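input
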Amino acid sequence: MATSCRYFSSLKVLQDWQESQDDLQISRAPLRRRHRYPDRIFSPRLLVCHDFKGGYSADEDALFQGYFPHKTGTAYWARALALIDTFVYFSHKRVAVPPVAWTNACHKSGVRCLGTIIFEHESSVSDARLLLTPNAAGTGYLYADIFTRLAKHYGFDGYLLNMETTMGSPAEARELLHFIEYLKFCLHKVVGPEARVIWYDSLTSDNRIDYQDALNMTTLPFFRAADGLFTNYFWEDRQVFEGAQLAGMLFRLDLWTGLDVWGRNVQYPAKWEIGKALGRIEASGTSLALFAPAWVYEELGSKDFETNDFSFWYDKVDNETKRNISISEFIRPHPVPVLQTENYQMFYTSFNTGHGQKFFVNGKAEYLEPWVSQSLQTALPTYPHTSHSPYLESYNRRLLQQHISTALPGTFKTSWNIDYTLGFYGGSSLKFTSDPYNQSPYFDAIFSSAPQHSFSLRKIPSPPTSPSRSINGSLRRMTSSYQLRQPRVFVTPLFLLDFVLQPSTPFIFFVTFMKCSKGDVKIRLSGRWLLVTRQAHGTTCYDELDSDTPHDIYAEAPAFEADLSGSVLDSWVRKSFSFKVPGRPPICSKSGQSGTPAGAQVETERWHGIRLPRFLFQINHLDIECGENFSGSIYLGSILLFSKHAATVAQNDAEAIAPSVTAPVRVTNVRVGSYENAKALRWDEDHETTEWIVYVNGRMIGVACAPGLVLSDEVIKVPEETLTEAFSSMTITSMASDSSDRTKVTSSEIPVVNLRVRIDAVGCGGTIVKGVEQIVSV
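output
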């Protein structure tokens, strides 16, 4: 099928592959720079090995250009990309190229995306031995060169090498170590320093399939040859700790201890309790390799997938200890990477999960059927709202200390949820709601034991591990009456963004809101600048994020305020706000002061020959101030942060603000081409364009992430009236040997279909330029 994703069933099939093929399956989303924690600062990394029904599943990711339409509008998607360091697309095909949709989604979040090379069972021995075929120059291995070309062409970042079959002899098994080293060298040279070759714990150097379940002297040669070792799943705690000691301080994070979410024949808790096993690995100091987290979708089904998947990653509570045992409790989230070009840096999200029941363009539903396209996924908040997260408990405790003068009994906890009924661009948005009876546990503790006038004098106690809904009657009456006057809603932090900027660089902030009820509403979105510093005691600002007295606050950013009181009901409103990166950081001597801590070194990065400090911008929280005539929800449709580099701003213009994001080029040169054996629309590529919305005969038919779209039979079928006219003019020839009439149709008599085609270009900042409609003949 023309739109099927690319994979190879054997090495001989792969040898015939040429780069000129499959141009529409090439990922055009480069791997964005993401701040990865230094090895000496312990933070376990997470590798996700995505095994779902053998890979390339129908109605999931088998078609590279997505599903427009889709049967249900629901598919498995990567919810927690902020937690993931490396994503492996696993399949039982000989060589699995990650579907372009997964590569795009991972790269936009700064996640490496790897394919799989797998040899299983004794029937694969002859194919495995071909790996050692020398190249024509005699300087390396033929198939290592092909694997490198394949990764470079399709835009992914390396391979998981799974050898679950033997070679021809122990000597060939030992030579395989040279193959791995050569493949690693080629990938690092051609694809880039972020490329990886990860070896799965199976084959040994003496040519036996002997799963060691850990790093030991048997697996050590492969660990050294590759970029990392993915251990088998049947480990014991002792093996994990011994392997971490063998890897040493510098390389322990390249040791990935395997966890099978399905829990097949393992000695640790699995499925919903996989977090307990994560805690055991975390103590050892190694990284984590999570196999088949799509268990939530594959076994439990799609009906409650959103709820189940959120609990699995963020909010699963142990019934006995009442502690959060979800994956997010053991993996520190990465800052969201920003798009960096020579002239500007930018962060944009429309909170799109890559699927939906409708497709919205600028807030209007343009495609009215369910759809799926993982390529279109954009960033979701770094810190999802959970009820049992120690980090968020600590954060909210600090938040209330900072706002104690305005925090009154009407302050309620609130949460955001992904909403699929409304969207600004894509299929979803963030919906903010609050429940007046879901009182914040922090205020429960304060109001039940202290008068209101003493709030600022008391130390706020630590919150309970599980918020209680049992509020005494007087407090409930007090909060309910206050809500009618002017409730204020606090929301947990949304994003932590990673910028490399000069001080005083101008910034512009665009946010799209919608309110769904009449009344007065004011939005206040605040943020703060954090400097990535190396403290005198060897820690970084990340170690301070969950501290009650953080030292990493560089400066509070000006608050983004929007008054939606006069806005049109149920319509999207876009507000903009300009500010600057603060100037040179002061030196702070006291704990909790803004500025650079005494003795700390500011982390910098070279950018176009200039050494610039690294800033983290935290979109802190959302204040929603509602008038007594408002009762409803607030929707957040998109966020855009944009900044030009200081070198490109007028040198003498101290008040200059960041200009608008460069718009994509209007598409006018649409033509018909071919893709394998199918008809396809083609147009020229523009580097400022990330997606193209395709309309045919006035109706949206899909979104392309490459300058071409394969046309379905439904789109190019001949109209019935045209077909009737064509057949009425054909010559009817009566065959003397048969009593029935037969119609002979020549190729010249097949009617030509004229399509009215318009292609809108979507820029990397969400700007949409409407194309010119033109007639295209198919």
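quick obs: The first strand starts at residue 7 and ends at 8.
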